[in-house]
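Researcher: Please generate the 3D structure of the following complex. Treat every line as part of one assembly.
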Amino acid sequence: MSSRTSGRRGLPASPDPLPIAVVDNHAHLDMTREGDEPFPIETAVAQARAVGVDRIVQVGCDLDGIAFTLDAVDRFPEVLGAVALHPNEVPRLAAAGRLSAAYDIVEQAATHERVRAIGETGLDYFRTGPEGRAVQQDGFRWHIDLTKRTGKALQIHDRDAHEDVLRILAEEGAPDRTVLHCFSGDAAMARECADRGYYLSFAGTVTFNNAAALREALIETPLDRILVETDAPYLTPMPHRGATNASYLVPLTIRGMARTLNLDVATLCQAVSDNSERVYGPWS
Ligand SMILES: [Zn+2]
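Model: Done. Output below.
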């Protein structure tokens, strides 16, 4: 495969490979954006590996996604898993009377040796209105407890809910390895999270033109707390904002972060790789 063309119509070309391989610590290989052709996991993994993204955490956050994740971690040495019920999924399942059966499935999936994180869980006040917040907060607390019982890492989704996420983590006691996925806070919140020992995962959003506050948060984050992710198929980095995202585009985010941090790319790659293995354990 040429490194300059993706072979898929409408997908951005592959960026230049990274000097040291890194981890995409949050991707949804099971999801396809509306209007897109499915992107087979074999292609996603191979295309990522070719540009130095040789490890991925696949996040299954509904029942179908969890089943996909368990299959993927068995078949691909490049893939580890995270499982949970997404904060927008919890109120839906509760309303349908299916929440406790779904929790049983998450618990069972969490026992898999290659499932290394519970996530994404947390709070989403953007998509879930006030009527769903109590059940969402209960769901968050349940997932924090499961993380501690299983000794896994925790991946948090926080959309427009910074204060309550930090409050509930403090009330419950955060697990040893806690990651704020797609970090969206400012420099003060980054400092607070770093002081608490959390990891901050930066997505393509950190490269957006209007993301100066997020770049200040990145600068505030100690190098040993920085992770990188796609949240594929969403949040595609510049200059491809709006296109479909996939793990092979992580080098664009990494290079943007290195510029912001005034670090050489290899130094940032090594840190991201080391931090990821500290959080999720070894891939092989
Ligand atoms: Zn996600």
